[in-house]
What we know:
- The chain has helices at 2-20, 24-29, 31-49, 52-61, 69-75, 87-98, 102-105, 129-135, 149-168, 171-174, 179-193, 196-209, 244-249, 254-272, 309-323, 327-336, 346-360, 365-369, 373-382, 384-388, 396-415, 426-434, 438-471, 479-511, 516-525, 527-534; strands spanning 106-109, 115-116, 120-127, 139-145, 216-217, 230-234, 239-240, 274-276, 284-289, 293-298, 304-306.
- The protein is α+β, with helices and mostly antiparallel strands.
Amino acid sequence: MRFAARALAQAWWFELVLPRFGLARFAARGRIRRLQKLARRFHALAADLGGLMIKVGQFLSSRLDVLPPEITRELEGLQDEVAPESFASIVAQAEHELGIPLDRAYATFESEPIAAASLGQAHRARLTPTLAADLGFSDVVVKVLRPGIEQIVEVDLAALRRVARWLSRVKLVNRRADAPALIEEFATTSLEEIDYVHEAGNAERFADIFADDPRVGAPVIVWERSARRVLTLADVTAIKITDVGALQAAGLDPDAVAAELARATFEQIFVAGFFHADPHPGNIFVTPSAEHGFTITYIDFGMMGEITDELRDGLQQFIFAVASRDARGWVVATQRLGVLLPSVDTVELERAVTALFDRFGGMGVAELTALDPRELQQFALQFSELVRTLPFQLPESFLLLIRTVSLISGVTSALNRDFNMWDAVDPFARTLLRGGGTSTARSVGREAVAILSALARLPQRVDALATRLDRGELAVRSPEVEQRLRVLDGTVRRATSAILFTALLLAGVILRPTDEVLSWVLIGGSALPLLHAVAPWRLR
């Protein structure tokens, strides 16, 4: 809680207060250094606390496509390096869950863990001869949940919920997202991760989906040696996917691995509708194969996401709008997906999207990368105010999807800095556009009903419009003018508060020699208008 409070206070001071006093360049000059220091502090904190804090660090350290390498390097150690539990406590946990002594459950069980993750740790073991003969393999990895992790997760979630409540009081945040709702979704997935029976079911479902794809693999589950807090699975450890040197030494092209990883990701999202939602580098291995080149094997299926029919239909409408450069359709599809809040200014947003489609629509990735950066900067500046104040949120169905794409984008960037994973989405987007027959028919049918309904209401709406014109009740809105007036009104209010603060402070200083009590009252009272003048949150 102290770390979060200090980080928020630092961001408020450097990113909001100083720029209001004309010190934006000063604040920007030391931004990277401040973020590096913050990342180092978080690294130490997360390693000390463990639990869900490690998950936050894993996500940030994988954002190589967004965060500068100076920052991600500070968090890289959190991917795999977590202090392990004592072997005695692991043995006690495993024997309690399996109901038999460890030396009877396994032929051998290594005391040193091969990985110590945030919620559990993994040990290599060998199955007993009888069980190995039945399954066809003997080398396994045994995952054991950290003793007491349920209580740690409960405490972490309580802290995160409190931080979310803080953020919900910041106007800049609550206009864009429902922070408490995001934390509740994170809580749901975190609680699923500490149930290994749930994870085992996910792994088998994933393996069934890709049973005919030799490039994508998953470990076999040993149900006879698995329970809620213990999971035994075939040992599939191989080359870590971001180990470029090891890939090249094995004769594999990192660019080809990046392309195949992107393909497998979009296959999960657009075709299977069931995807691995925690694909950080520690959870993906590459195994060389003489027949197929290589196989990408996923582990850790505690966090999975699903694409519902509703979300698939929304994505289909969204892609239709982009393909046809229909700005109005794009806005409607985005609203249906639940990304835009009801308060969004659709008129101004539609104008911006129209300009975007007119200028950049239809361009390929190569054409976009060849554009003059000054042109892109000019376009961004033109609509910067709209983007900055755009009210959006991340619906529950989007959270894991965005996390997955973000992590995979970071991994592909580590394999090939110039790789653009969005090139890989094209065939899957076309498949979604074609819709697979029944899906397309259903979507077209809904659109036809909507059009017929609108046509049926059109005469009545035209008559109502004519009546309002006759009465002089028609009002014309200018979203841009309204936005400028809101900004001007806020500026005037803050200026008034600043003047009031100055007056109270000076009065207090002047009266101090004659009336010390009144002087301190005035000086203390000046704090309230000062807060209103510089604070980013909305007083309630």
